Amino acid sequence: MGVMGFASASVFSSKLAAFLVLGLVLNLGLVCNGGKTSTFVRKVEKTVDMPLESDVFKAPHGYNAPEQVHITQGDQLGKAVIVSWVTVDEPGSSKVLYWSANSKKKTAVGKFYTYKYYNYSSPYIHHATVRNLEYNTKYYYEVGIGHTKRQFWFVTPPAVGPDVPYTFGLIGDLGQSFDSNKTLTHYELNPQKGQTVLFVGDLSYADNYPNHDNHRWDSWGRFVERSVAYQPWIWTAGNHELDFAPEIGETKPFKPYTHRYHVPYKASGSTSPLWYSIKRASSHIIVLSSYSAYGKYTPQYKWLEEELPKVNRNETPWLIVLVHSPWYNSYNYHYMEGETMRVMFEAWFVKYKVDVVFAGHVHAYERSERVSNIAYNVINGICSPVKDQSAPVYITIGDGGNLEGLATNMTEPQPAYSAYREASFGHATFDIKNRTHAYYSWHRNQDGYAVQADSMWFFNRYYHPVDDSTSAQS
Ligand SMILES: *[C@@H]1O[C@H](CO)[C@@H](O)[C@H](O)[C@H]1NC(C)=O
Ligand SMILES: *[C@@H]1O[C@H](CO)[C@@H](O)[C@H](O)[C@H]1NC(C)=O
Ligand SMILES: *[C@@H]1O[C@H](CO)[C@@H](O)[C@H](O)[C@H]1NC(C)=O
Ligand SMILES: *[C@@H]1O[C@H](CO)[C@@H](O)[C@H](O)[C@H]1NC(C)=O
Ligand SMILES: [Fe+2]
Asked: What is the pLDDT of residues 297-340, one digit of tens each?
């Protein structure tokens, strides 16, 4: 038994009872049946939303100035970008003006949409897809043409290929609390510069307000603009995107989300914006919906069944899945909520050697061993997760910092499949080096920007499928 600083990666022997004095910052680690449960104690503060008059929610000056500007990938390969923004005074122009250092100014024309939710009427929500971009190029773009123009920029990814390095950021369950702002700031200031965010669902938490006050969708859009106007965020739908509220007459699930956040789902043959795929650099990214039907014969099931054989690991060695509700989660929050989807799809993930599955939903952090639990049928009773080198690592990164606060209550003892878990807010980066290696690290908000609280070298399951478990040595 021992006590150590949380920055140390070493692991303790056998069982350790840890008694924590509230308010005292102790840094302990312990090994039970499973991996490490970090008992790092964060400062005990309530998680509260930033008030609407906060600096991060300020609307830009000027008549009909575009606000809530955000971009995401606009096609399968990264040569298109969907530019979205909101105008409040009148529709104005849905045009985007864009150019690079060595190209003429061009225009992409989009459309605007509005929706009503209970007694809320949305402003004008514009979406325009900018196509035929050069790879690996910095583009400037302007929206608000004809009224108040605002200028932003983004960098297109390199062409898809097996050894293209690329760094993804991972953020989930962000919300708009003071902690959310810390998470975003830490992501922005992380020296491992993320180039695109893989967002694992639960964006604004507007639904926690009376009548799902959609003004909190608007404030969230203004809050995250400082990142998502300059680099794509790849969207996954969470339960807080449902906005299903029959008690106030709102029976169309995902109404605010699907109006505000467009994704390139048709490019991957999907029939719904709630599940789709993209290729970016050396990765193939599959986004699934925990809150849409996925049983046999359903549209999502059929799409995924056809999608997985299309993944070409010679072109995109890294196969990454995003889904909101985790399949392997040892917290006493949302325990086993992901189970039915796991039962449907886990065997495919093993067959197609998915490298990593990122989920959110549980407001804490957890990383699993490579495990699978696919031997079970109704008769044989074989129902325990086992180590499996063809299986993905499951990472829960629902620790963005929303107003619902941290999940702190964990199942005990730590299950063998759980490699590391900690109840702290933070974000992660997944830094692909080449076809065989990717460096993953998790950063908690209490640390300095460069500190890695948990990390792992991922060995690609197709090109280098050797044991990459962080506990393999012990
Ligand atoms: C919407 O309804 C709520 C509660 O009934 C009320 O407080 C709010 O002022 C209304 N908003 C509008 C725009 O009517
Ligand atoms: C949010 O974070 C930014 C960047 O660190 C800071 O400038 C701003 O004052 C913060 N706002 C609030 C309300 O915490
Ligand atoms: C933790 O969760 C378990 C299972 O739901 C529950 O029995 C227990 O009371 C919880 N502990 C605390 C401190 O909330
Ligand atoms: C791939 O990246 C890893 C980590 O940076 C490095 O050790 C390895 O040599 C690289 N492989 C090739 C073929 O360059
Ligand atoms: Fe959630």
From this structure: 999 999 999 999 999 999 999 999 999 999 999 999 999 999 99
Catalytic residue among 334, 361, 363, 443: 334
pLDDT, tens digit, 9 for 90 and up, residues 375-424: 999 999 999 999 999 999 999 999 999 999 999 999 999 999 999 999 99
Closest by CA position to 178, among listed 190, 186, 169, 189: 186
- Minimum-distance ligand 1 atom for the alpha carbon of 120: 13
How many Å apart are CA 474 and CA 472, to the nearest integer?
6
Going from the Cα of 333 to the center of ligand 3, the distance in angstroms, rounded, reads: 9
Annotation says 324 is catalytic = no
Rounded to 5 degrees, what angle do the CA atoms 284, 449, 165 make? 25
How far is residue 439's CA from residue 431's CA, in Å, rounded to a whole number?
5
Q: In the chain, what are the domains?
A: 163-201+274-473 (3.60.21.10)
Residues around ion ligand 5, judged by CB within 5 A, are 202, 238-239, 361
The whole-model pTM stands at 0.93
Q: Taking a C-beta distance cutoff of 8 angstroms, is the pair 300, 335 a contact?
A: no
Count of C-beta atoms within a 10 Å radius of residue 279: 23
SS3 304: helix
